[in-house]
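Hi everyone,

Forwarding the result from last night's run.
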Amino acid sequence: MNLFQRMIEPKQQITHTQKLFTDSMLKAMIIPLVIEQLLQMVVGLVDTMMVSYAGEAVVAGVGLDTMIYTIFIYLFTAISAGGSVVVAQYIGSKDRDNSNLSASQIFHLAGVVSLFCMVIMLLFGSALLEFMYPSTEAATMAACKTYMWIVSLSFPANAIYNAGAAVYRTMGKTSVTMKVSMLANIVNVIGNAVGIFVLHAGAAGVAWPTTLSWYVAAIVMTALCFKKDQEVCIVPKQMLHLNVSMSKRILGVAIPNSIESTLFQAAKVVLGILIATFGTSQIAANATGQTFWSLAACMGTAMSTVFITVIGQCIGAGDEEAAKWYMVKLTKLSIVLAFIWNAAVMILTPMLLPLYDLTAETKRLILIIVAIHNLFSATVQPFAMPLSSGLRAAGDVKFTMWASIFCTVICRTFLSFLLAKWMGMGVIGITLAMAMDWCIKAALDIWRFRSGKWRNRHVI
């Protein structure tokens, strides 16, 4: 056993037969997930760079818009993530029929919810933006409205892609989702280059490629999920019709997860309204900084998916000791990988900033908020994010929901206003409040895990 393996190996051991996932299997899952997340973040960086050449008003407008748009993305992801817990547990129990049924119902629920959200935003999106950002400059608001209307059309494709990706990830086939994501990102980058530099379409130049790339990903992912010669597949009849009992089971996980994710992003929207009062430079710094934050956090996002697959299958197999063992091991692994990854991103940040057509003050703010974020993302977030996903995969969804509501909606929002507005720290205060939120959430997750109260929260 090498030094790295000794660092992440739990002290309390389980039998060889209880280890459903070997180190090589975990590696085969983690590497494609990280590559996929990295590709998405790199595309985000490239998008932001290209948009910056359309002017800071467009950067700011797209940044404010993204805060609302992401609420819906989180909602669709939460439905898929909730469904993946159910699918993973059925895989662990070796119940193929219910595995297929639950996977099919994820598609059904994702499709219905996303279509409803699309119609709502197409009808009322512009009015919502004017209500939320009344003091925003005219050019920024114009970019907001253009971007929002176009990307609203991508909601069904986004939801369906996430449903298919969730099914494949619960089977451990993360290399497939990586390749589909790579295809979609290529479409997105080429489309952005054409939209901005050839057509000079501004916000629309990045919105249409985003929408197109999601439809490409959704079509490919759905086609793959129809394949019958795999552990789980979707059945057309089961996908098109609502199965009440299975949907209730999925929603039993997905609704708390959706509430948690939606309120999390809603809190960010409230903070976005606050940030919108700070001026164009700070708005642009926050929008660009969030791209770097997402890049730094991609390791935690990848590990959260691994937690759901591994812990969900352990619980489905009825082995809570194995679930506990893997929670410890995966948390240790998350800390080591997050530290290495966040350090690398911090080193790269000052090298990448000259590529952005932003003012010196905006770049200075970006460096500060990225440094704060990465410090806590490396040391605290593994407990506040991946471990929380492990608790959720075990069925302890209500605790993770209430903990997130308390930490994000209450603590982060209050601390943001305290530091950013009342103490005059601007976006730096927003970043510090986020870090404090993670610290509180991490403490709650560690307490919950050690208490053992996450056990016996059965989903299936």
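The chain has one domain: 20-451.

Cheers,
N.
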